[in-house]
Amino acid sequence: LKRGGRMSAVILSGAFMGDDSRPADLIVAADSLNERKLEAAVRSLEPAFGREIRYAAFSTPEFRYRLTIQDRLIRDTLDFPHVVLLDKTRML
Are the C-beta atoms of 9 and 92 separated by less than 8 Å? Predict the structure, then answer.
């Protein structure tokens, strides 16, 4: 995932936690986000899991904004079982 930009937050949820009903399996916030490289990295993980990985990617300012306004996708992810792998935003 590092190739996708300078990561500021990485959150695992959904299928990573054994709950396929969640809207996203992976949420990424990064500076200098390169969506093509990030998508290629996520797609390379899919064969190991045997399924499509649903993910959402945001710039760091947009992610912070979505956290402050209680965005539904972010709220649905953080209100249910999840793992924060990286949090440079210090908001999680």
Answer: yes
